Amino acid sequence: MNETYFKQLEETLYHEQLPNGLNVYILPKKGFSKTYVTFTTNYGSVDREFIPHGKEEPVIVPDGIAHFLEHKMFEKEDGDVFQKFSENGASANAFTSFTRTAYLFSSTDLVLENTKVLLDFVQQPYFTEQTVEKEKGIIAQEITMYDDQPDWRLYFGAIENMYKEHPVKIDIAGTVESIKQITADHLYECYNTFYHPSNMIVFVVGAVNPEKMMTFIKEDQASKSFEPPQEIKRFFPNEQNAVAISERTLQMDVQKPKVIFGIKSNNTTISGKEMLNYELSMQVAVEMIFGRTSSFYQNVYETGLIDESYSADYSMEHGYGFTMIGSDSINPDMLVHAVKQTITDNSKEWKFSEEDLKRITRKKIGFFLRALNSIEYIANQFTRYSFNNMNLFDVVPALENLTMEQVKEAFESLKNENTHSVFKIIPNLKKNDE
Amino acid sequence: MFQQFELAHGVKLYVRPTEQFKTINISFKWKQPITVKDASIRAVLSNILQYSNEVYPSNADFRKRLDDLYGTALYFDTTKKGNNHIFSLNAETVNDAYLSNEKVVDEVFSLLATVIFKPLLVNGKFVDSIVKREKEQVIERIQSMYDDKTRYAQQRLLENIRPDHPASISSNGTVAEVKVITNDQLIEMHEKLLHEDELSIYIVGDINVEEIKEKMKNYFPFSNRTEKLPTEVVNKQGKNDTNYLHEIQDMKQGKLHIAYHTPITFYSEEYPIMQMTNGILGGFAHSKIFMNVREKESMAYYASSNYSSLYGLIFVLAGIDSNLQEKAVQLIDEQILAMQKGDISDLEINQTKSMLKNQLKEALDSARAQIDIYDQYKELNEDFKVEEWVEKWSNVTKEQIQQMASKIEKEFVYFLSGKDGANNE
User: Fold this and answer.
1) Are strands A320-328 and A311-317 parallel, antiparallel or unpaired?
2) What architecture (CATH level 2) is domain A2-222?
């Protein structure tokens, strides 16, 4: 078992890669009474075209299948896995993102028993046509629920604007129509391709004895048989640098218009240290220019163009990335104008000092230390970093070493107008009878 | 859990030294009985105080100062608890131990004192342009609830069953009341916080209790004030001619919200039994409502119940297809009826006990939750212990749960959906 001590953070991380390829990480946290265990596969909604395990030709699967599979993992021949977790006092959950599917539980008691339930249910697929059919009603309601949420529609509308081909533009849950096509065979095909231990990570954090837990997981995995690991071949369409749609408006039953100014990122094939540095540079640049201490923010707040819903951030994964600046706004067009103007002004004259950089860096370090109190944050973020060959615990030193040159270079990538896109939601025109 | 000290009459300090967290959490909670008018004033006041102060007159200066203090989080919040409105100021800052040669914590104390005692005033008044804008911000916050259909539906249900009652008064007040707030009213409310409202201060983190106590006395010279707020809420039912309301908006999913009243509140002897009863009914993923409405019938993605113990109310919530409303209500009725008839398994009882215990213990892994839970439970017993509550649940029997279920009475069904039954595309 490898042991790494992060002196500044006073944390020790334990790691081992098991013979079947599974990576196991354990981070004990002093003083905590709960243990949080996540079992995550490097497989999400963007993985729609791939060569299935044991085959040679690529297939395209129905939209929303990774999420559908996540739902179906909880149902077994002898009933619902939630029942078992409940008996052991564990709260279980799962989520699917663009790039990952995570299964997790947290509990303050019977941690090894619960870990066993988690490992078993994720590693023993059970799908029948009947149970697949039954799930369609539940997921259709989940999709419908999101359809009524303007902020979710805004977020996805902005992504749809930016991407022409890349499957990041497809809603994670798919559509009521696309999930109708899903069969048990599809689920097995995706499961067998993406749920091999070599494509997965177990992360344990909280109240845990690392040696005991590692031995337990090792023995469990050794007792199960898996096929030898195979390289997973995924295919992504070529995506143009420019946005697909530069401006679009949707009408919905909302009180006040909503807008996102999106900037598509094209530097997205990097990973590891390079990705970490780029991501942090972008985040610091966005914070400097559009954060709460910026003159931009001061100006749009005082003129009433934004409200408490305002946000500005950058996010990326392998293959896609974007900056989003958004808010509910009484005048979205004026807000968009102010954003564009700010980008232009900064490209003419870079107005930030080393002092500004230092302040933003400190803020981000403080945020990171606060986040380390949350074992959910640690587990989810660590896994994300790991799938991108980065280490979560490198964030503080990387921030400390960030230079103004890097930040300025990151800002340069925001300038190209072909990568700008505006998505608005405006209130319905009121009908006469209402 | 917390050590307590009296800083002045009516001002209590609760301290919990622990090495569990890398940060120090501080929370000031001012309480007074809730009214629509005062909630509105306090919501606007909290925004004004959060924006700027005498030392940092512009928001950018103020925020920059916080960023310099390693991104110290400092925010006001207004909430309610039973009969009372809570005006709170919260801060979370990194512990000096994780920073070399820094003294952040003292600086944060000093900043908090500035925020509380030295607001930005001109001729004894708040700055009019700031007042105007922050009133606007609160109005927009209140209105934005309309866009969140679940919150909107719940608020409409409450307005129907408990009009002009603490249960339905929003902690942000109302648009109409916010509009008419004057600068003088805000000044007056600020004075009340400084001199009249009951105040509890919480500190959690790796701290030295004696040192903190001394610092608190120095930085926060609060005056004596009179106590003590009424705690128990009188659960008077509203007068409704009907017990059903269907409202229509332009939307796809139907939002079903059902209210039940019970004679049991947080302050009742039987409170732990009602927690168990609600847990079996719909509090968890193993509960009857989830199992039947979602898993068996595939009617919903979410279907659950929650027990609002300060008001003695239970709410059942489900997102369903708009033409399945009657079927869903019937199915939910059946679950309660089943419990009243004694259809409660040992498995359900054990699962619920384990989950309640886990929920409480897990919550205590967050400093913020330690503060909130203690702030609630201390009203029953200043010496709050997790084990005591676990013990209370573990003694609950099937017969007691059955008896409790028979005290749950359906009061109102609220349904929000698109055009009735039709596909609203």
Assistant:
1) antiparallel
2) 2-Layer Sandwich (3.30)
Query: Do B185 and B263 have their domain in common?
Result: no
Structure tokens that stand for B16 in this block: 């919990």
Strands A320-328 and A420-427 turn out to be: unpaired
Domain extents in chain A: 2-222, 247-433
Question: What is the value of pTM for the model shown?
Answer: 0.95
The reply to whether B32 and B178 lie within a common domain is yes
Cβ of residue B148 closer than 8 Å to a chain A Cβ:
yes
Question: Catalytic residue among A16, A56, A70, A177, which?
Answer: A70
DSSP A108-150: SS-HHHHHHHHHHHHHS----HHHHHHHHHHHHHHHHHHHT-H
Indicate whether B248 and B197 sit together in one domain: no
The yes-or-no answer on residue A70 being catalytic is yes
Query: A374 contacts in B (CB within 8 Å)?
Result: 366
What tens digit of pLDDT does each residue of A86-132 get?
A: 999 999 999 999 999 999 999 999 999 999 999 999 999 999 999 99
> Which of B298, B351, B367 has its CB closest to that of A134?
B298
Q: What is the pLDDT of residues B194-203, one digit of tens each?
A: 999 999 999 9
| Closest in B136, B355, B365 to A33, CB measured | B365
Instruction: From chain B, pick out residues whose CB is under 8 angstroms from the CB of A10.
Output: 98
Contacts of A433 in chain B (CB under 8 A): none
B357 within domain boundaries: yes
pLDDT confidence bin for A9, thresholds 50/70/90: confident
Q: Which CATH class is domain A247-433?
A: alpha beta
pLDDT at B234: 62
Q: Count each helix (H run) and each strand (E run) in chain A, helices first.
A: 15, 16
Domain that holds residue B60: 3-219
